[in-house]
Amino acid sequence: MSVDTIVRGGTIVTPERGVRREDLLIKDGKVVGLLLDSSGVDAAEVIDANGRHVLPGAIEPHVHIGIYTPSDGEWYSETCAAACGGVTTLINYFFHKDSYLQSWPPELAIAERQAVVDFACHFGILTEQHVAEMATYIREFEVTSFKFTGHWKGFEKQRIGSDTRIDDGLLYQTLRAAGKYPNVRVPVHAQNVEISIPPFAPPEADHFLKRDHLGRTGLDLWDKLNPGFTETVYAMMALYLAERTGASVYLVHTSAEETLQALRERYDLRRLNSYAETCAHYLALDTESPCGALAKVNPPVRDRQVQNALWQGVLGGTLSTVGTDHCAILKAMKKIETGDVLQARLGFSGMATMFPALVTHGVKKRGMSLERLVEISSTNAAKIFGLYPRKGTLTLGSDADFLVTDLDKKRVASASWIKGVSDFNVFEGEALFGFPERTVVRGRTVYHNDAVVANQGYGCYLPRRA
Prior knowledge:
TIM Barrel, 2 domains, nine-stranded parallel sheet, 15 helices
């Protein structure tokens, strides 16, 4: 028997088969064998994984390419950031107020020309035209997830265009259209922006919560101006409407203890064919973290009590996936030098640090099993978004997407980790475990020895069926 590549001596982890010492055989980009002893097999390449763990490549379901700098360029830089973090597939949020029949093909062409890891896409719903054309998007582009951003009202509506209509009626229309398809998901940004302060409101804008929290600063103030229950209120409405329409909701970046409590007490996500995601920064940072306003994001990083509650949601199964809300931004763009968190811009890079953060704060500190690590970082996202079993596992016939890591080796986080646009790391100076030594996409190494080694355009678009 002859194959292209053998990954020899490693410990392979999958939720389906557990933790096993096996050799991985790869041919034509696919897994073709899992053997206890591959010594009788010929291969053009042998990867020595002795003493290492081999895990399915991370799938990042929550990425924003092209927010602060053009997507033409970021499709390369940010997929490099993905590769160095062990992310082999990302799902990007693409928003355009015009029809995606015109706006998506040129964006897809850029992505196919530049990406070094595989990718899929969510479309944002901003208008009734988007809802009316959903069936066409599903048929023509094989896109099966459509995001509704509940807080894009007021200041946000002015930012994206006055001809959009982001309201509860459009949410209902979106869910009613999506409910016709069992495998279409509606990611929902849950936030009651009539209570919380609008994320893009001018810093000087008056707001009643500001008056309630005089004297607070930094991430603590941002948390109090966007209280967790405002997420919960919107999430419960979205789930109720999903129940009425038969749609499948995916609650993005869940950050609030109140939301977890409501999910446990009021809604069975499995019964509703719905899901909840959190992000690595909510699990590894809190309002007292030394990075301060660099970690300003929406929804906010919250206090240690909430962080512990989110970990209970991850370990107990209420939360199915972990993403990063990745957004490439330079430190100078964050505008933190004023010391006013309200003037600081939102977002930071996350794909390079997601996996080490989960290993450190989940596996090492909280005893999370390696199987659960793989579920929340890879397998569940693949199942939810129609990529499994091609992605999210290492089994016969699946794509040979994986990372190789020494889970016991520490490395101090720094901005140099991030191979993308961003020049700062919210985990700067923290010793983290589990950084990838090698990242492989469809059998080809794309990152090794702290360098991206894939050519632009190696990553491919992943169509999905509704």
